[in-house]
Amino acid sequence: VALPVSLISTFLAIYFFDFSINLFTLMALVLAIGIVVDDAIVMLENIVRRIEKGESALIAAYKGSKQVSFAIIATTLVLVAVFIPLIFIKGLSGTLYTQTAVTLSFAVIISSFVALSLSPMIASKILIKKNIKSKITYKFESGLNKFREFYKRTLLFWLKKRKAIITFLILILVLTSSVFLYAPKELMPKEDRGAFFVIIKAPESSGFEFTSNKSEEIESFLLPKVGKGEYRRLLLRVPGFGKSSTQVNSGFIIVLLEHWDRRKRDGQRIMMESFREISKVPGVLAFPVMPQGIRTGGIQKPVQFVLLGNTYEDLIKWKEVIKKEARKNKNLTNIEDDFNQTKAILNVKIDQEKASDLGVSTLEIGRSVETIFGSRNVTKFTKDGREYDIILQGDIKNRKEPSNLAKVYVRSKNSGQLVSLSNLVSLEEEGIAPILSRYNRQKAITISANIVGDYSLSDALTFLEKTTKDNFPDARIAYKGESEELKETSYQIYLIFALALLTAYLVMAAQFESFKHPFTIMLTVPLAIFGGILGLLVVGSSINIFSQIALIILIGLATKNGILIVEFANQLRDEGKDIEKSIIESANIRLRPILMTSTSTIIGVLPLVFSSGPGEASRLTVGITILFGMIFSTFFTLYVIPTIYLAIGKNTKSINYVEKELNKQLR
User: Fold this and answer.
1) Burial, 145: exposed, middle or buried (Cβ in 10 Å; 0-12, 13-18, 19+)?
2) Nearest Cα residue to 597 out of 567, 550, 561
3) Residues 426-484: tens digit of each pLDDT
4) Are 263 and 400 in a shared domain?
């Protein structure tokens, strides 16, 4: 009942918050399938356990729900609390985080309400004690009892080895910090989008015909692969799209791949293989780009490294050295910058002394060159009430070659004869940059590059940063596009993790009215985070916006098991049992709901792990992070929580004990 009620109600949150049905909200709903049943499992397991002890369904529902209500409320509040810091993230990442957090939080809140109200009511009506059990139930319970006995024996052993457990925890903390810092980082995982683009750039002064011929030559290398199992269709356009749509020296090829089920190789590998073919065409720059699942701007390379300086002369010197070093890095390809002196111009230099001797003024020379090789607005005329410009210029045939300058004559004021301009001027060919870029009101040059293989964007930026600092300490650095978004997210995520941990701790401290119990429970978080990052490394993924969401979710999920054990141990201590017997019995009794809730969460993320098609890499990143994190934390939590509780919880009291003492004093 909790599952359909929670999921259907969650669509109301999506509607009221004006979210769309997108990758992040759908992923949150998939995750919710495994999470929302946890509270109902804890509630029903406790009621069933009491019925098996001989209580009636009504009494078991009443006492059982009362016994676990605190734990259910605590786990729900903690899971929702870890999402609160996400609303402070700005930009694209913040928008995506918020949609996931709100969707999942609403589903968890509704499921908690259902578990505390609807589940006990239904249990009191339909649950009965079965004296005769099916073979499957009998075998399952027999296996569970054997595992419980094994767990109890090993728990007693490790409770005597506190130093080993504490040493293990410290080791995990160190490893988690190290792995998190040095794990590859990027904004988004490399996706197989079912298509890729080939960006073509001819020299700045190239015409449409030249660019078109070169683009068709590149296309001819790819055409033989169409219909052979991987390539489905090619679409060529000259000039390109977007900002390049008015630049005749640009081209664009869309390569549509066969459906994911019809090809064996990943789209990224197919794309990188195509680079070997298109790079054979001389005279133009051509490189393939896989479109992103989430656009951070136009179609551009992931590496966007901006150099800032006081003069373009310094920037030119810096960028040449950095590009030279970058080309030595085999993991970077298609390295270029936006300050290419490829726009050809002719500088006309007037021989002032010779022109003066021949009686030709500089003004006449300039106007003649302007009129013949450019154009000059000489007057206007009006027709039918509309005004038109009259433009004077030379014939197009006489404007194509610099040698045509010899055909232009100006009259000498001294002799009255015509003098050829070729006798008065000289031509110097020069290449200039078509655009002088600025960034944040400073002179700037942007170095861009593509990434090869498993090399991450963070590794690429770190390499360029180190190269710049080693060679030019005075250079200032900035970022654009995907690189800028990654940097902003990376800086924010450390703060977000710290705030999420602090928020979860304070929420539990308020609930338990203790600082030690929340500390004990929070020690499960490094176990989950380490397991999650380990899963990313196993599948060759990275820390990106998808895995960051999964890691934050793991903070809430990891504390669930600890809350169940600690809260029930406190109840047993209130009944008069000593701390050691209480924690052993609590861990033993809570073993079944812990295994059931963890299993439901793990099964819930399996579709994300094994799904294919569009967005496969993103889903795999989230799924594998939670899968490994839950497996790792669930296993070790069963030993770490009881050991730490026994070590630091001797002088603590439960919230029920405080309430009883207060009532005594009020009497």
Assistant:
1) exposed
2) 561
3) 877 776 776 778 888 889 999 999 888 778 888 899 999 999 999 998 889 999 888 88
4) no
Would residue 453 count as lying in a domain?
no
Name the residue with tokens 């590998």. 269
**Cβ atoms 414, 358 nearer than 8 A:** yes
Q: How far is CA 665 from CA 401, 571, 576, in A?
A: 105, 21, 20
**Distance (Å, rounded) from C-alpha 496 to C-alpha 502?**
10
Which CATH number covers residue 648?
Answer: 1.20.1640.10
Number of domains in the chain: 4
Q: Are residues 22 and 90 in the same domain?
A: yes
The answer to whether 369 and 311 are in contact (CB under 8 A) is: no
Half-sphere exposure of 224 (CA within 13 A, CB side): 6
Residues, the chain = 667
Note the maximum CA span of the chain: 129
Q: Which residues of 635-659 are buried (b: 16+ CB within 10 A; e: fewer)?
A: ebbbbbbbbbbbeebeebbbbeeee
End-to-end alpha carbon distance in the chain: 44
The stretches of 400-480 forming alpha helices (DSSP H) are 457-471
- The predicted-structure confidence for 106-127, as pLDDT tens digits, reads as follows 888 998 988 888 888 988 888 7
Residue type for position 42: V
* pLDDT at residue 577, rounded to an integer: 85
325/465 Cα distance (integer angstroms): 12
Chain-centre distance for alpha carbon 626: 16
What is the rounded CA–CA span in Å between residue 327 and residue 218? 23
Give per-residue pLDDT as tens, 347-395.
888 888 888 888 888 888 888 877 777 777 888 888 888 888 888 877 7
Out of 116, 132, 148, pick the residue that ends a domain.
132
Please return the burial class of 569, using the count of CB atoms within 10 Å of its CB with bins 0-12, 13-18 and 19+.
Answer: buried
Q: Can you tell me the distance from the alpha carbon of 594 to that of 590, in angstroms, rounded to the nearest whole number? A: 6
Residues 551, 620: one domain?
Answer: yes
pLDDT in tens, 565-617: 998 888 888 888 888 899 999 999 989 889 998 998 899 889 888 887 777 88
Query: CATH number, domain at 358?
Result: 3.30.2090.10
**Please, are residues 200 and 253 in contact by the beta-carbon 8 Å criterion?**
yes
Look at the block and give the residue holding tokens 């009944």. 575
